């Protein structure tokens, strides 16, 4: 196995496979301490990064241009690497089962270019056991090398929060685990060179995998509770946020909020854990109950919009509803697993004409991934209702008067605020029928 000192002296390169929201910040950070090779199968992505621009905005152009990462789309370049870090997505399919194709494909590519003595590290979120049960046999088959003798593996789960400039790679404690002690030691040194918050050593790869997958499962369940409470409080005729603010005056009340749960982590990771549990003959009830609640929130928001339109005397079929925001969270262009699409589809089932605008998203990506046309903000006019689905900072400047001017009949205007983004008193004072989740 290679030594950390040889990596520091740039005698052997370290490769990062997958240059998205997770892989690119890692590659950039490590490049200041060692020779880094950045590999991605997307030729457009390689060309973009070579020019010094990151469309995900996780790394600004100045930092990207200052980083000494060698970008390539040539798999054979991986033969040079003494350490290979795999940071590809692990999504779910249409049946909410793990879609392992990205990690299997990446592992196959790595295996075909694996050299003796190499360490392969996974950052992708997986169920406990996947690294050793699925990835290792592929590496052995494709390389002809033997696990434990000719190469070792490690696991260090990513904790990137897209768009978060406070909780970054450097400021979040990094979990590391290795197939043997020497591998764990090497990973602690590699990640320790860039992570200021410290390193947590897990006793095994399975423990590290499990730790990652339950981080987001816990958040998912807490948000599901808030969503269920929001439905209850709606029927009681009381404001959910007011209740949560009151309850939050107690020191140990957790500050979760209701909302649409999408993205590549919270809305996905629990299904990896439940998949493995059911494979072992155990049917998880609490985790899946939380998933059902959160997966139905888009439908609930759409139904709330329809009910309020009816109360204002609007004809539902052909009604025009504008939606502000289409990304999975605020202030990022990330469209992965956005649940705003559920609101759009449910409204269309009612015969509603929906117009979607987003201040951050790439219109071409929205059309390609979801078949959704994004329109400029100025085209949200002559509306019967407006839904604020994502709280992008760009929408903070929208005044009550501006919002009211976008309705066909201002006296019957319906404003639904999924993110509790606007000032309710100001909106109601302007004559808007205001609702928030």
Helix content: 25-40%
Order of helices and strands: HEHEHHEEHEHEEHEHHHHHEHEHEHEHE
Coarse morphology: elongated
The rounded Rg comes to 24 Å
Distance between the termini: 54 Å
Largest sheet, spatial ordering of strands:
3-2-1-4-5-6-7-8
Beta-strand fraction estimate: 5-15%
Structural class of the helices, strands and pairings? alpha/beta
Walk me through the structure.
This protein has 437 residues and is of the alpha/beta class. Helix content is 39%, strand content 12%. It contains 16 helices and 13 strands. The strands form two sheets. An eight-stranded mixed β-sheet has the order 3-2-1-4-5-6-7-8, with helices on both faces. A five-stranded parallel β-sheet has the order 10-9-11-12-13. Helix 5 (101-112) runs parallel beside helix 6 and helix 8 (205-236) packs across helix 11. It is elongated, with a radius of gyration of 24 Å. The N and C termini lie far apart (54 Å). The relative contact order is 0.08.
In short:
With 437 residues, the chain is α/β, with parallel strands linked by helices.
Secondary-structure map:
Layout: H1 4-8, E1 14-17, H2 23-30, E2 36-39, H3 43-50, H4 61-66, E3 69-72, E4 83-86, H5 101-112, E5 119-122, H6 130-143, E6 152-155, E7 174-178, H7 181-192, E8 199-201, H8 205-236, H9 240-247, H10 269-279, H11 286-295, H12 297-311, E9 320-324, H13 340-349, E10 353-357, H14 363-370, E11 385-388, H15 400-404, E12 414-417, H16 424-429, E13 433-436
Parallel strand pairs: 1-2, 1-4, 2-3, 4-5, 5-6, 7-8, 9-10, 9-11, 11-12, 12-13
Antiparallel strand pairs: 6-7
């Amino acid at each position: 196995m290679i030594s950390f000192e040889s990596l520091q002296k740039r005698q052997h390169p370290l490769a990062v496979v997958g240059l998205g929201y997770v892989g690119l910040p890692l590659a950039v950070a490590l490049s200041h301490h060692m020779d880094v090779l950045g590999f991605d199968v997307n030729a457009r992505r390689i060309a973009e990064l070579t020019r010094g621009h990151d469309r995900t905005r996780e790394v600004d152009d100045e930092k990207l241009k200052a980083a000494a990462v060698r970008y390539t789309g040539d798999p054979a370049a991986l033969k040079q690497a003494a350490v290979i870090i795999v940071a590809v997505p692990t999504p779910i399919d249409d049946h909410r089962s793990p879609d392992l194709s990205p990690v299997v494909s990446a592992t196959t590519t790595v295996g075909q270019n694996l050299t003796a003595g190499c360490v392969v590290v996974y950052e992708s979120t997986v169920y406990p056991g996947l690294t050793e049960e699925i990835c290792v046999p592929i590496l052995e088959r494709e390389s002809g090398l033997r696990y434990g003798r000719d190469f070792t593996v490690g696991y260090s789960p990513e904790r990137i929060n897209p768009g978060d400039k406070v909780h970054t790679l450097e400021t979040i404690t990094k979990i590391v685990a290795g197939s043997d002690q020497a591998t764990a030691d090497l990973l602690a040194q590699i990640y320790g060179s860039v992570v200021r918050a410290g390193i947590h050593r897990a006793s095994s790869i399975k423990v590290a995998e499990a730790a990652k997958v339950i981080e987001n499962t816990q958040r998912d369940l807490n948000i599901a509770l808030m969503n269920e409470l929001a439905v209850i409080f709606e029927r009681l005729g009381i404001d959910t946020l007011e209740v949560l603010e009151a309850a939050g005056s107690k020191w140990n009340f957790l500050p979760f909020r209701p909302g649409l749960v999408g993205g590549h982590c919270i809305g996905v990771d629990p299904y990896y854990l439940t998949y493995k549990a059911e494979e072992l003959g155990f049917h998880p009830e609490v985790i899946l109950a939380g998933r059902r609640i959160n997966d139905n929130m888009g439908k609930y928001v759409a139904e709330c919009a329809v009910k309020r339109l009816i109360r204002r005397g609007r004809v539902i079929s052909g009604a025009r509803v504008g939606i502000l925001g289409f990304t999975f969270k605020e202030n990022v262009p990330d469209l992965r697993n956005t649940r705003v699409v559920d609101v759009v589809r449910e409204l269309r089932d009612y015969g509603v004409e929906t117009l979607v605008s987003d201040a951050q998203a790439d219109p071409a990506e929205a059309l390609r991934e979801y078949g959704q046309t994004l329109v400029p903000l100025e085209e949200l006019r002559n509306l019967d209702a407006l839904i604020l689905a994502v709280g992008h900072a760009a929408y903070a400047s929208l005044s009550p008067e501006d919002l009211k001017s976008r309705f066909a009949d201002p006296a019957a205007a319906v404003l639904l605020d999924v993110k509790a983004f606007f000032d309710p008193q100001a909106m109601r004072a302007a004559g808007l029928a205001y609702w928030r989740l």
